[in-house]
Amino acid sequence: MQTEYVHRMLITIPESVAKTFGPWFRDNIDPPIIAGDGTTTLYPGDDTSTWPKRNATGKATDPPTHRVANGAFTDKQAKLITEQLASLGGKTPPKWDKLDEDAKRKWVEDSKADLLVTAGVYAVATKNDSDLWPDKVAAEAAVGVKEIETAKVDAGPVEAADVAIKG
Hints:
Layout (H helix, E strand, L loop, with lengths): L6 E8 H14 L4 E2 L6 E3 L9 E3 L10 E8 L1 H14 L12 H19 L2 E6 L8 H8 L2 E2 L12 H4 L4
Antiparallel strand pairs: 1-5, 1-6, 2-3, 4-5, 4-7
């Protein structure tokens, strides 16, 4: 099935970068939806505050250091994201409109190491044509972060009376 969302991108950003990248992402990629009256926000837009948090230990007791997200993007959105990534990494953005789809994603791939060193940002771009998404675990390993475990509550032993079906 053909879709306008031709690029899949996995982006891992440090919390410090999220403070500026987040509002930019909200305003340019996933903008808020404002009601016809011009004052009521129907949808706040995604500013990376909802992106899953990561840290070096994976423990909830340690503060998050990074945010990570996987998404499917239109060519226009991927161009804007790529330009923003280039800006964060001090790189010259690619001449997007002169590249074919594979060359666009290759630019992200070829820039991965530079972006990680200069901005702490890790990005992967793939074609949006299957059920395979970029490898989140490999990306987290490259950055040195882990998924933060959620707290587990021990409810104690389950008593037979707690699960008995009453008829």
